[in-house]
Design a protein that fits this description.
This protein is mainly β. The chain has one domain. Helix content is 15%, strand content 40%. It contains three helices and six strands; from the N terminus they run ααβαβββββ. Strands 1, 2, 3, 4, 5 and 6 form a six-stranded antiparallel β-sheet that branches. Strand 2 and strand 3 form a beta hairpin. The protein is elongated, with a radius of gyration of 19 Å. The two termini are 32 Å apart. The relative contact order is 0.19.
């Protein structure tokens, strides 16, 4: 299961609304994206990219995930609830120009807060 999760993270790409040619890419200034793979499990990840140079973008990222899991462990009296919030910043560099098809590198920094709720049987 760990390897499957790692593969999903490595191959996850942002949904891109439209295909821009390099000549038209310079007119686009903003790109909003959602991570489609994580939506399958209810993890909402939204980011915005703002053009800062011909090959660079910079923008905020937001994340929210709230799964409720039925506990198979008899020591818990309720379901287990996990809430995760995240906020961060991401930069994207592309050798072929921003908002075009091709390879890109996207370093990011994110703060995450997690809370786990459940009642323990005494």
């Amino acid at each position: 299961m760990k390897y499957l999760f790692l593969l999903i993270v490595i191959f996850c790409v942002s949904a891109h609304a439209e295909d821009e040619t390099p000549s038209n890419a310079s007119t686009q200034k903003v790109n909003l994206s959602v991570e489609p793979i994580f939506l399958i499990v209810g993890d909402i990840q939204i980011s915005a990219d703002f053009k800062i140079a011909d090959n660079w973008t910079l923008g905020p990222t937001l994340r929210y995930w709230h799964p409720i899991v039925a506990s198979a462990d008899t020591r818990f009296t309720d379901n287990i609830s996990l809430t995760t919030y995240g906020v961060g910043v991401r930069g994207t560099w592309s050798p072929t120009g921003i908002f075009t098809d091709g390879w890109y590198m996207s370093p990011a920094a994110e703060f995450r807060a997690c809370r786990l709720y459940g009642s323990w049987r005494v």
